[in-house]
Design brief:
Elements (H helix, E strand, L loop, with lengths): L2 E2 L2 E9 L3 E7 L7 E8 L5 E9 L2 H19 L3 E5 L4 E5 L19 E11 L4 E9 L5 H6 L2 E3 L17 H16 L14 E2 L2 E2 L7
Antiparallel strand pairs: 1-2, 2-3, 2-6, 3-4, 4-5, 7-9, 7-10, 8-9, 11-12
């Protein structure tokens, strides 16, 4: 999860010209919510500017959506990527997740790493997996294939419709929110492998205690 000035980035949208907008939250700040314009510099580091600050989440989500729509209308650019913590889910189909078994792209570390009890059916029995990882930003096809990770089927639908046109910002954020909520509710249980809370390669493993 990205942070800027103490604000955790809840979601971001990047556009075809490399510009974008982000919504952030800082629970102890006088104005706990903010929207920023943003871009990635030559080193791939996300930069934030032109903040709008407020106290009401719903109002700031509307500001976020309005800024994206207004920019698209002015500059005629489409959305290329929607980002949110835990939004992009990838399954480890060949082995449990451990050190050296998953990609760590610059500025896109895994948000969550979960190992299952065993290799189990996932996505309605579509295939078997040993565990999964979630990322704020999508992996490239090469990053996923190099580690034999299989993306959740819904990932490719977040940014494209069947006719290959970009989804609207409202549609993208609705689907992104639904996916994030569904991911948090997955009844996955880890028994073998690294202990919960033990840092592995700089990341903390999650323990699901739903049973």
């Amino acid at each position: 999860m990205d942070k800027n000035q103490g604000y955790s980035i809840l979601k971001a949208v990047m556009l075809e010209n490399g510009r974008g907008f982000a919504l952030g939250h800082h629970p102890t700040a006088p104005s706990p919510y903010v929207t920023w314009a943003c871009y990635d510099d030559k080193n791939g580091q996300r930069q934030y500017e032109w903040g709008h600050y407020g106290n009401d989440l719903a109002a700031m989500e509307q500001d976020f959506s309005d800024r994206v729509k207004d920019y698209q209308r002015l500059y005629h650019v489409g959305i290329v990527q929607t980002e949110a913590p835990g939004l992009y889910k990838y399954y480890s189909t060949q082995r449990p997740v451990d050190i050296g078994t998953f990609p760590k792209p610059p500025h896109n570390a895994p948000d969550e790493i979960v190992n299952y009890d065993r290799r189990i059916p996932v996505e309605g029995g579509a295939f078997l997996a040993w565990g999964h990882l979630t990322y704020t930003r999508p992996l490239t096809e090469k990053e996923a294939s190099d580690y034999e990770l299989r993306p959740a089927p819904v990932i490719s639908e977040l940014s494209r419709k069947n006719d290959d046109r970009p989804l609207s910002i409202a549609q993208q954020m609705k689907e992104a929110g639904a996916l994030a909520e569904a991911s948090q509710g997955d009844p996955i249980h880890k028994k073998n492998g690294p202990r919960p809370g033990r840092p592995i390669g700089g990341f903390v493993w999650k323990k699901d205690i739903t049973r």
